[in-house]
Amino acid sequence: MEYSFRSEPLGSFACDVAAEGVCQGAIAVGKGYLPDTISSAVENELKRRGFEGKEGDCCLLALLEQTMIRQLLIVGMGERGKMTGEKFRTLSAKILKTANGARAKDIYVHSSLLKNVRDPALSVQLLVEGMELASYHFNAYRKHTAAEEIKKRSVARVMLPSADFATRKRMERGLERGKSFSAATVLARDLVNTPSMFMHPREMAQQALKLASRGTGITCKIMNREQMEKMGMHASLAVGAGSQHEPIFVQLVYRPKAKTSKKIAIVGKAITFDSGGLSLKPAEHMSDMKIDMAGAAAVLGLFKALPDLKPRVEVHGLFIAAENMPSGSAYRPGDIVAAMDGTTIEIENTDAEGRVTLADALAYAALKIKPQAIIDLATLTGAVIIALGSDVAGILSTNKDLKQALMHAAQEAGEPIWELPLFKPYAELIKSKIADVRNVGGRPGGVITAALFLEKFVHDVPWAHIDIAGPSYAEKETRAEWPVGGTGWGVRLLLNYLASL
Ligand code: BES
Ligand code: ZN
Ligand code: ZN
Fold first, then answer.
1. Quick one: which of 112, 260, 358, 391 is 20 to 30 A from 231 by CA?
2. Does 440 sit in the ligand 1 pocket, CB within 6 Å?
3. Which pLDDT tens digit goes with each residue over 230-279?
4. Residue 355 annotated among the catalytic residues of the structure
């Protein structure tokens, strides 16, 4: 969508939908831009319809030929002063969807909508995020005509009210950030939505290479199977051994212009398809498993926006992409494989493969990069969906400050997250009789034992693990800014976190 600032008064130019916000119990509409007679007719109509301005209530009224505004969208903002950033983003998403439903091509956002969040930059950022994220369609595999049809029926232009010079500058900054954060989220969604037949390990690496162009501050290092072998990444190679597609290691590095000693490593799970391997998944659990690289997709999304955000830290993004398939060359239950740091892993279930690849990636981060903190994002367990449902990610961490900063960043991003305990006594459950550790710990506490497994490979570097198996994919639309499919969950959390450092 295209965004522009309009300095002329609303009503003096044509627009399909003008959206005005009203607070609960203070319903005044059209002040300064509608003739008084129309304004009071609108207010009467709202009364007649029982519209009270409750948060999220939307009412669309046609103004026909009486003004240059074709339709008026009155948006309930709820009680004055109670609007939060997260609610405002969802409200913007809803406004966009309503305008699309009304076949509008353009929409004007009245200043009343932008007044209720902290500052003008943030208001505009959240507005843009809500609208961009709600208008997402994954059209790459539709007939050209079908994609065109959707485009024809969608809002193409968003007009924002102009303001005094200083405010306007801040709004412009918010606009840029909103666009950048949304584009990054959209990249992650596209990668997750792309079928595994195309989004195989080599393609994941190609996607990373594309982000490392000149002038971005980003470089990209790739290791193929032989190089991984030399590095001792036998755990990941075992996971990928059953597939026609070889595993690949990818490390993106963002270096800020001003030298810094601060380094953060972000690791994503990148199983491009999880069939379960020889511990084969039943069909109904396998059908969505192209999403099992959503952690790495979030890392790639993050790097897309880093050159815009320009954080003052060195950021390392890494993932080991592999496909988990059954075949004559596949790894087996009972096998014992060594990770990069020499820790041996007894494979009890080949479907607990994510943690086996993360073992190498985390050990690499801890021992080779030596950052101040490691964060991993992984669609790691079905158990986290049982614990927290499909909209909330789980976080487990060895460091309180890191955990709190990430939870705060998640809240700002509108990405729900909840803490689960890294309960040490459960480490008993992943003890092996013949190796250093076992890759499963039974059904009870499945999120915790998975995290305790990962902890073995972070070598005391402050670390947080985020299990995104639930919210990385929306099976149905539970909020307007999460259309069905990949959600891009985590991209904006990471951006907000890095911005806060
Ligand atoms: N990729 C799955 C976890 C998953 C499940 C992600 C549902 C998204 C939606 C993971 O590799 C897996 O299969 N985990 C097993 C672990 C078990 C064998 C210990 C699980 O959760 O069932
Ligand atoms: Zn699995
Ligand atoms: Zn998996």
1. 260
2. yes
3. 999 999 999 999 999 999 999 999 999 999 999 999 999 999 999 999 99
4. yes
Closest Cα partner for 374 from 383, 364, 382? Answer: 364
Out of 280, 290, 380, 487, mutate this one to test ligand 1's pocket (max ligand atoms within 8 Å of CB): namely: 380
Q: What is the CATH number of the domain that holds 224?
A: 3.40.630.10
pTM more than 0.90: yes
Q: How many folded domains does the chain comprise? A: 2
CB 294 within 8 A of CB 489: yes
Out of 281, 310, 332, 368, which one is annotated catalytic?
281
- Chain-centroid distance of CA 415 in Å reads 8
Same domain, 363 and 447: yes
CB 110 within 8 A of CB 10: yes
Do 464 and 374 lie in one domain? The reply is yes
- For ligand 1, atom 8: residue with the closest CA: 469
Q: What is the pLDDT of residues 313-341, one digit of tens each?
A: 999 999 999 999 999 999 999 999 999 99
Q: What DSSP state is assigned to residue 273?
A: E
Report whether residue 462 contacts ligand 1, using a CB cutoff of 6 Å: no
Ligand 1 pocket member 379 (CB < 6 A)? yes
The catalytically annotated residue of 189, 355, 403, 479 is 355
pLDDT in tens, 364-400: 999 999 999 999 999 999 999 999 999 999 999 999 9
Q: Is 281 a catalytic residue?
A: yes
Residue 439 Cα: closest atom of ligand 1 = 19
Together in a domain, 303 and 446: yes
Question: Does any ligand 1 atom lie closer than 6 A to the CB of residue 69?
Answer: no
In the prediction, which pLDDT does 116 show? 75
Confidence of residue 64 (pLDDT cuts 50, 70, 90): low
Q: Is residue 150 predicted with pLDDT exceeding 90? A: no
**Nearest alpha carbon, ligand 1 atom 5:** 382
- Among candidates 163, 109, 164, 151, which has minimal Cα distance to 131? 109
Average pLDDT, the chain: 96
Ligand 1 pocket, 381 CB below 6 A?
yes
Cβ pair 351, 279 in contact under 8 A? yes
